[in-house]
Amino acid sequence: TKPGSLTRQNDHLLHRLYDLQQQFHHIPQQSIINLATELKLPISQIEGVVDFYSFFHRSPRGRYDILFSNCTSCGDLAMMQQLCEKLNVSPGNTRADGSVSIDATSCIGMCDQGPALLVNGRTITQLSAQRLEMIASHVEAATPLDQWPAEWFRVQDNVRKNGLLLGTAFDTGSALSAAINMEPEALLAEITKSGLRGRGGAGFGTGMKWKFCREAKGDAHYVICNADEGEPGTFKDRILLTSHAHAVFEGMTLCGYVIGAQKGYLYLRAEYRYLLPELYAVLSRRQQAGLLGAGILGQTGFDFDIDIIVGAGAYICGEESSLIESMEQKRGIPRVRPPFPVTSGFLGQPTVVNNVETLAAAAQIAIHGSEWFNTQGSDKSDGTKILSVSGDCTTPGIYEYPFGVSIQKILDDCGAENVQAIQVGGPSGTLIGPDEFERKLGFEDLATGGSFMIFGAERDLLAVISNFAHFFAHESCGFCTPCRVGTSLLKNGLDKIVSGHGTRYDMDEMYRMATLVKRRSHCGLGQTAANPVLDALQRFPKLFEERLLHSEYAPHFDLDASLEEARRITHRDDAEAHLS
Ligand code: SF4
Question: Which part of the chain is the NADH-ubiquinone oxidoreductase 51kDa subunit iron-sulphur binding domain (predicted)?
Fold first, then answer.
């Protein structure tokens, strides 16, 4: 594909497939063939894309397609079961009359206001028994979604603690006005001096990334804002895009100014599709104000535009090279690196991929200067971090702290008592117990992309770890064997122990497998997928030991249960052919 060839985003494959999914409640094969002709793409490429993303289906879903979050913070699968019973449909299936399908999906980013679900892609939060009852009535009455109570679809920001970024007013255009008074080199120097590091979790120096990209040769340069926050327990980008979109877009434009890009893309996770109308409205206002387009703020040669691409349900697309593959209308399989995106990214051109929070911070730094930013924070972690706090506390929501804050301080602020464990940085992060609550947030101690999940003493922590293992097994893209097979084996091993059939052998085997998955996987997903299991084995061994059988070994594989399908197909069920 040539640089610049993806200009009309209405023609983006993911968007066209989304429209088909809405129209037919699945993607018909004939539509794939038609689309292949129209978009001049191989049929196999489109089929591959349809099969890759969770929100596209080859077989019909219901006219109401309901997906319950399966996250430990915003999910409630018991509620899913209740709605299934009310509507007479089994989980994962579509009712015979085609009216409704109900299933579970990975975290939908509503961890501060769960339980939550998506219906035809729209979010309903704060589910209750009464709300489920009414949802069932509306489905049975075939009430159009637009006539369901509007307050059900309202999503709150829930900002509990402001800091440097959330608490400083941002005048639209002010970062750009400050920037054009400096040469791009001077702005780059200021960003570098601020010590700003990527807020997605990995913490690569933002100034360094921009510099590498600026120096890379290419026909075009690109800026991508990674708004595909899919880590369970994370929802801070949702708030930034809801209430601070100007700062985010301005950060993207500044990055374009520094690296010499004329085009930026916001890659938005599908679960936040409800934000699109307002995001487009903000972009349009920015165009009218001369803050986007040709000759920004009247400066000849400063041209920059932004488009939005919406994902389709794939956690792996939060990994920058997968995200770029997805933007190029392909399956989101992580690339082999090097080359890194800064030299060979979108369409093979130099590309900066930055997190939403990073770009919003860059915009504020352009206005207030590097010192304003780096006087807060710790030695190796300048500035503040926005946290998504969820789980067992009285006030879940958004909290912004200078790096270096202790875990205990956060727990005190959000009203968490009698805490058993915290998952810092989401399932791919670190699981810690009370003896580590004096540890500090920061790249030198506990790094985090922002997820902060609290588990009280009443929680079945092993069930939580098992939930995370199921998440990774589901989200593994399948490209490399250690992750594809290893995450499934870890999931099975945990299921076995949770159900009371595990032995010490299984614990040892799980440790061996978790270490292998961590060391041998191709990308960050696999390299971190085993973290919850390893952390739990190391810090909470009793959780496992209490559930172990006394025997040394019990088979992993339930042969009798596995024969069930053969019995069904052959209509034979001989009593003697059952294993005790
Ligand atoms: Fe895919 Fe997992 Fe391998 Fe990453 S580690 S490439 S997600 S299979």
Answer: 462-507
